[in-house]
Amino acid sequence: MTMRDTDRALVQAATAVARLRCRSENHTVAAAARTTDGRVFTGVNVYHFTGGPCAEVVAVGAAATQGVTELETIVAVGDRGRGVIPPCGRCRQVLRDYFPTVRVIVGPMDALRVVHVAELLPETYVWADQQVDGPTGPVPTPRPAD
Ligand SMILES: [Zn+2]
Fold it and tell me: What start and end residues bound the annotated signal peptide (predicted)?
């Protein structure tokens, strides 16, 4: 998918947070997530040897703190000018289970593009699909047409 103006603005938001808040080894990546109605939530990773959360998960938590349960697009940006960073495997699974249709911004800064999370994790385990009595957690929604 091609980048929209709102996608570029989301990259700028994550970049700004990375510049402002990622100034130690504890916080090295910033994420920004947008809702369909245009609200933006940001977060930074919380590094810890026990497995601190990635920036994407912190942004999801920030959104949930405000009662937001639907995200349209998400992006992560590294500190020290590293640009957009694709989500790690764990985040791909979290995003896929929580927001089955979320768009993810990936690629080098001069060729950014948007993909659906399902494209980043094809043929994956889907938690909600495996519940015998139906989903009790994140509810899957059909993938929209591009
Ligand atoms: Zn991650």
Answer: none
